[in-house]
Amino acid sequence: MEKLKEEIKKISSLALFFLIGFGYILLVMKLFLAEYDINTYVFSKAVISALVAAKAVAIMDMTPLLNRYSKSPRYIQVLYKTFLYTLTVSIITFIENLFHAYKEAKAIKPAIELFLETRNLNLFLAVTLCLSIVFLIHNIFQEIDNYLGKGKLSKLFFDRPKNSELT
Q: Are 88 and 157 contained in the same domain?
């Protein structure tokens, strides 16, 4: 039961972080697209994306592939994890969009053609770059927390300062 509570706590904090980051990205995207009257469901996309990303990050953090550069300087570990997270999201997004095109076309070749015709590469790259920034911030915070000691970073931000710290 204790392990389940720990997992829920980890997923909850990751999901909250990604909800804020993805919500910001989707809100900016909605504001940019408002001029073109394109409807996007910002909040539901942010919530679902945050939950999926939180679980994916938690699972990926347990794999040996992510700890490949654990003996290297911290910035290399941060950049490596950011690259892997971003690559994973890009691949999943690509597969998801191809799957939606396949549902419309009902065959592989027309689905690929539909996918290439209807997808906006610039928007995909912009969102991918924004996501990489969110992952970069997450990885930097994670390394700072590891350096200070687990939980010290959240205490730094969320605990009230003591009177001796004010002087």
A: yes
The identity of residue 78, as a single letter, is V
Same domain, 46 and 2: yes
Q: Which of 24, 88, 11, 23 lies closest to 51 in space, CA to CA? A: 11
Structure confidence by residue, pLDDT tens digits, 76-121: 999 999 999 988 888 887 888 888 888 888 888 888 888 888 877 7
pTM (whole model) above 0.85: no
Q: How many separate domains does the chain show?
A: 2
Cβ-count burial of 26 within 10 angstroms (0-12 exposed, 13-18 middle, 19+ buried)? buried
**pLDDT per position as a tens digit, 138-167:** 999 989 988 988 888 888 887 887 766 555
Q: Are 77 and 70 in contact (CB under 8 A)?
A: yes
Question: Residue 71 is part of which domain span?
Answer: 63-161
Question: Are 157 and 96 members of one domain?
Answer: yes
Domain shared by 70 and 137, yes or no = yes
Buried b (16+ CB within 10 A) or exposed e, 55-94: ebbeeeeeeeebeeeeeeebeebbebbbebbbeebbeebe
